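> call design_seq(struct)
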């Protein structure tokens, strides 16, 4: 390509290199024309002529070729001698970029063109390309197919590389459009420069190397791919899975064995293949001996055999006979096993021939043109042929060929996979198809097991930005990065995700909670003070306490006539012991699953027994106090505190508590409730107090009694007598109050079942306190120091 910076007149464009593949296509055209010319059915009595121009597969040289076509032969030696160009139609161009240029040049002359390889979606714009036809499907279908392929194999992180031409530009645009809304993201987009430039290519390769996208979709043709792949091979980049566009998926240049380690496994969509009988033989007839001074044949020989068949000396290449046979290894030229592009050329020639045939069959008076006229057979205008082209339908080997309203053909692709052949070279293996005429979703048919992936692997390669999030976690998008790149964050407790790649964790329903893995909701643990170790311990303590009390009771009863039992009213002592037994036992109600009944019983039984117990102690204190403050014998006080009165006091004090409890039970009794607030992962079964006022009243009343008892006992503590009970009562009340004062904060701050345990424990502790303080000294004397158990001793001085 000349430098077009407009500062000097550019030198003429030069073509370099020789493309045996394109030469084969040209030969196919010749074959088709010759077939038609020999045919007795198609265009009998007419001979098609043609001219082949080299566009060098560049827009600029394509333009030069198009001008040459138009300027063609001069008027004088025009066989029609009409002054019109004999040119009726053009077959070409291959690349879309060139086709665009050629189409623009041909348009003013209304010369139709049929392209066999220009798949660019841009040609659907009929306003811009009214005379353009093609026998290759529009790339819109190919990008759709590629997008489906990427989605199908979970290639969610892909790189895009394209050549610098309309084909690449539109294809990438189309692919991006197709990928919108799918799970596939594009990691990078790179463009191989039109004028190949190694520095730029290395930059692209660097991007490829550093990216985690292992799948690279390339919209490019072998022209720019060849140098690019050569550089790729030197860079020692591994693990790239190529997805090839139709332009290079069937390029035989890359089938050489040296490419296999780098390109093996490439997958892509190839255009439909067909059968051209006799093509192989026809290609073989082309040799320098047959076409002595055809420069293209000479160049072909140079390209295939690396020798110069023209006997002229002065060429740097060794000379050869020109009779060398074309061999397998010359597949770039001779590969005719499944012609695809060549088949398109063939179809294009036939399309023109059939249209011309139809044009010539026109009956005067029923023609398609003005006043039902027909075209004149000796003066056919290109636009007249175009009319017939639009309508032509014909059959080639069972395949129907026609053009739709946009001049396009039927979308059908083979999925090709590059696998290792016998000789270590690359073979194109058909592993599926894409049929665009099928309903959406059913177009793609892949035989996955037949695919060989890059690196000679049968496992589908991974190309993802972030590996998927396992159940139990959710995706968290990274700011400023494509949606395919995300972090996985574990679900919060109480939430789960049971699918991979969940976007959100869902809340567990009521009464359910997430498990450790956060993948399933499990029923919340129901917690209450059960007969587990804690429950059993409390039960044992309470039973032991009750038994002890009963034992003391027995001892007292046995020694009921001794002085120490009889002093200060033995009946009261028995009352107290009875009450204490109940106190010990009532802690049992706190253990076990709370039920309607147990909840009601808990606080009421406890408060009433405690009230009763303390009332008895209170009674006793009163007796002690009264006995000693009665300074003179026969004082009235003792009369007022006879056994009857004592019992009345006890009864009244207890009844007050009973009344409070009754009111509580009637108004708003305690009930079992499920507490889900305290600890969200558990359901705590507890007894709701119903009315907390009542609860604190009940406790307060016991407290009040205890305090009163304490104060009275305190006053009496220094009264004379060797055995002054007031001392022990003071002490026991101190312990009692200490226990219940510390109970309050402990109860309030204990979670769930521990609140019950605390209460139960407080009951036991205070009961033990009372039992020991009140009865241990007496038991000691009764059992171990019976000699002190006399009235004299007790009275002291
Ligand atoms: N389908 C391609 C196109 O429409 C095929 C092609 C042929 C091509 N020759 C090319 C692509 C040269 C790029 C360059 O363009």
């Amino acid at each position: 390509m000349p430098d077009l910076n407009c500062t000097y007149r550019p030198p003429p464009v030069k073509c370099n290199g020789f493309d045996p593949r394109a030469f084969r296509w040209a030969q196919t055209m010749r074959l088709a024309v010759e077939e038609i010319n020999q045919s007795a059915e198609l265009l009998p009595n007419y001979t098609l002529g043609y001219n082949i121009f080299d566009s060098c597969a560049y827009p600029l040289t394509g333009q030069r070729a198009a001008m040459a076509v138009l300027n063609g032969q001069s008027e004088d030696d025009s066989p029609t001698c009409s002054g019109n160009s004999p040119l009726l139609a053009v077959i070409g161009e291959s690349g879309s970029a060139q086709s665009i240029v050629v189409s623009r040049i041909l348009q003013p002359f209304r010369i139709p063109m049929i392209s066999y390889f220009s798949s660019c979606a841009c040609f659907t714009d009929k306003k811009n390309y009214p005379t353009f036809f093609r026998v290759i499907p529009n790339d819109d279908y190919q990008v759709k197919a590629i997008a489906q392929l990427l989605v199908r194999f979970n290639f969610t992180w892909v790189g895009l590389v394209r050549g610098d031409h309309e084909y690449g530009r539109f294809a990438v645009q189309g692919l991006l459009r197709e990928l919108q809304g799918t799970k596939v993201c594009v990691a990078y987009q790179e463009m191989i420069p039109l004028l190949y430039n190694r520095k730029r290519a290395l930059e692209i390769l660097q991007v490829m190397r550093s990216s985690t996208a292992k799948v690279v979709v390339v919209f490019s043709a072998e022209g720019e791919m060849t140098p690019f792949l050569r550089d790729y091979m030197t860079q020692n980049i591994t693990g790239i899975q190529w997805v090839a566009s139709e332009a290079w998926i069937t390029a035989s240049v890359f089938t050489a064995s040296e490419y296999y380690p780098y390109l093996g496994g490439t997958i892509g969509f190839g255009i439909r293949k067909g059968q051209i009988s006799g093509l192989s033989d026809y290609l073989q007839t082309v040799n320098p001996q047959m076409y002595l001074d055809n420069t293209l044949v000479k160049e072909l020989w140079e390209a295939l055999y690396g020798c110069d068949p023209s006997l002229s000396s002065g060429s740097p290449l060794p000379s050869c006979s020109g009779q060398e046979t074309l061999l397998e290894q010359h597949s770039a030229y001779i590969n005719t096993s499944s012609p695809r592009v060549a088949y398109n050329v063939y179809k294009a020639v036939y399309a023109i021939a059939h249209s011309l045939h139809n044009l010539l069959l026109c009956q005067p008076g029923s023609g398609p043109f003005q006043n039902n006229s027909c075209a004149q057979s000796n003066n056919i205008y290109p636009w007249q042929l175009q009319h017939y082209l639009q309508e032509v339908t014909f059959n080639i080997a069972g395949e129907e060929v026609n053009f739709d309203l946009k001049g396009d053909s039927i979308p059908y692709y083979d999925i090709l996979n590059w696998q290792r052949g016998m000789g270590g070279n690359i073979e194109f293996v058909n592993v599926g198809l894409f049929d665009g005429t099928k309903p959406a979703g059913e177009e793609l048919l892949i035989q996955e097991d037949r695919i060989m992936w890059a690196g000679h692997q049968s496992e589908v390669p991974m190309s993802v930005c972030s590996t998927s999030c396992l159940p139990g976690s959710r995706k968290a998008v990274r700011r400023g990065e494509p949606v395919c790149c995300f972090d996985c964050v574990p679900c919060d407790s109480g939430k789960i995700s049971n699918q991979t790649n969940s976007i959100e964790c869902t809340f567990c329903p009521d009464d359910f909670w997430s498990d450790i893995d956060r993948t399933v909701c499990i029923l919340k643990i129901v917690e209450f003070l059960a007969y587990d170790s804690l429950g059993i311990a409390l039960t044992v303590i309470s039973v032991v306490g009750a038994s002890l009390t009963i034992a003391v009771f027995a001892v007292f009863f046995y020694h009921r006539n001794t002085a120490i039992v009889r002093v200060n009213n033995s009946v009261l002592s028995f009352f107290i012991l009875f009450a204490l037994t109940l106190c010990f036992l009532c802690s049992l109600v706190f253990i076990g699953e709370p039920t309607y009944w147990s909840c009601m019983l808990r606080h009421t039984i406890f408060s009433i027994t405690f009230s009763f117990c303390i009332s008895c102690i209170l009674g006793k204190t009163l007796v002690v106090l009264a006995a000693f403050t009665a300074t003179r014998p026969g004082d009235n006080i003792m009369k007022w505190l006879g056994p009857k009165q004592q019992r009345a006091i006890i009864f009244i004090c207890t009844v007050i508590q009973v009344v409070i409890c009754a009111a509580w039970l009637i108004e708003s009794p305690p009930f079992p409730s499920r507490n889900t607030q305290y600890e969200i992962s558990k359901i705590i079964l507890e007894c709701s107090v119903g009315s907390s006022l009542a609860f604190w009243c009940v406790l307060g009343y016991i407290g009040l009694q205890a305090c009163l008892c304490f104060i009275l006992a305190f006053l009496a503590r220094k009264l004379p007598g060797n055995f002054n009970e007031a001392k022990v009562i003071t002490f026991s009340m101190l312990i009692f109050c200490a226990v219940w004062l510390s109970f309050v904060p402990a109860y309030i701050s204990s979670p769930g079942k521990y609140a019950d345990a605390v209460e139960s424990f407080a009951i036991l502790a205070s009961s033990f306190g009372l039992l020991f303080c009140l009865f241990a000294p007496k038991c000691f004397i009764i059992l171990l120091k019976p000699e002190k158990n006399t009235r004299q001793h007790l009275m002291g001085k």
